[in-house]
Amino acid sequence: MPGRSDLVVDPEIRDQLLLARRGQAYWARRLAALPDAGFSAPSLIPGVSRRLLIAHVGIQARAAAMRVHSARTGAAPDPAELGDQFLDVRFASTLPVEALRHLCAHAAVHLNVEWRDSPPDVWERVRDTVWSRTKEVWVRALQLGSGGSENELPFGLVERIRAEGWPIEITDIRNPRFD
């Protein structure tokens, strides 16, 4: 069976998807480098545990996937699935370590599938999900505090993130935004 590929035709969006997917892989490596015992330790964000940061990244991917799915299918999102994302993050942060790891991995796969299956006419409505996710995974991977370095980020990414007013040293995810 042949593999499936993105339906998007815009070369700029294709490049953005590549950067987001590379960021997801970087996040996954940083998360894999974190021993289970280290999940309850603080992240590099003052007052924020790694558990909360990890849950935030997973829930952000879920929210983006639901948004893309709704745009692609025309179906209104199920209100029960949307929930209160702030509360969802708080709840998810209490999950066992293995469940937190699975939340991040499965939500990322779901988002990637939604992006892949989105035809060209959908992309104007959801293209911002790609940049939002790109920032999320690269920056949070550093804030996880599992050995990542700003020097490992792609050339120009740090400057672009800072130029938008989203500094690498974000210090508040207690009320996370889900753009």
Automatic annotation (TrEMBL):
InterPro entries: DinB/YfiT-like, MDMPI_metal-binding
Transmembrane intervals: none
Xref: SUPFAM superfamilies: DinB/YfiT-like putative metalloenzymes
One Pfam family per UniProt: MDMPI_N
Annotated ranges, domain Mycothiol-dependent maleylpyruvate isomerase metal-binding: 21-143
GO molecular function, one term: metal ion binding
Full protein name: Mycothiol-dependent maleylpyruvate isomerase metal-binding domain-containing protein
